[in-house]
């Protein structure tokens, strides 16, 4: 039950030595500030790093061919092979857990530069032959027109979607590229859309220098037959591409006479697995943040406990008088605990507010100065605030428990004898 007299007495006791109280409260203030800031910085790092995955289907895998490392069925090791369009159809037919299987053909990039011209202007750009679903695996911002469609695929239409740096390199300022033609290795393609590279795990500058064309038109124009350069595979929602990967490898190995144990023959990058490792790393960092912050906070709590012991010793005679007048041990103990809780929670709340102010300033500076690589939006959730408050309450009780027990153990007669 609320007692005005009790709280006035508690406030008077804490304000009796203001400087000592402030120094004691500073330990808790600083500890909770460090705890919240550490967790915010960890979250900022996590946001910055995982933003690289944000525009990819995080349950995807990219797969390419490598030389075999084990001889098999009379075929030597070190043998090269190519994926075929039939592999794509087989994966779609035999693994219903796959949502998208996007084959790609490529000019430029790691296969060497290629010439793209428009009028009198020439540039070297990467050209990708893709299917329409690739935009669902790696979203991009279509700034005008559209992306390639299945009507383009079925008709083998020589259309293309060009990046912002391609527009800058081949077109005059203010010129509308839609409906115009670019010549790729001597073959004309009509521009049906433009796109802007979004945040992704890939190289944004390289993305902006990219041209997308229909897979079938690419194969026809550049005589690649039924070859496939590499594939992007995405699992159905709620399923893990990592779990499906062995089945994918088995089908590919069977179709290309690769030894069942020769995993080196299939190059792959499992984005889901990588994303899981990153999340695991930041879970550990979050734990470290809690651990280090709690240790700093604990030093402040120990300071409060020591000061409360001193306060109890200074008020020994007062406690003895109150006991002699009939105050119960619990009445004495509850007052000491309330003083400890008030000091802990008040200083802790100021620390949380101070940390929130620093976080706000950090975000303001980041918004004003532009994005910082691998660091974005340092923040803490409300759950962290509630956890901090819970820690403060428990810490306040622990800080006052030893002094409170000490105050109630002394007999009233002994307390009254102390000068």
From TrEMBL:
It is found in: Cell membrane. Residues 291-412 form the ABC3 transporter permease C-terminal domain. It is a multi-pass membrane protein. It comes from the Bacteria. Keywords: Cell membrane, Membrane, Transmembrane, Transmembrane helix. Residues 21-246 form the MacB-like periplasmic core domain. The chain crosses the membrane at residues 21-42, 287-312, 341-362, 382-402. Belongs to the ABC-4 integral membrane protein family. This is ABC transporter permease. It comes from Formosa undariae.
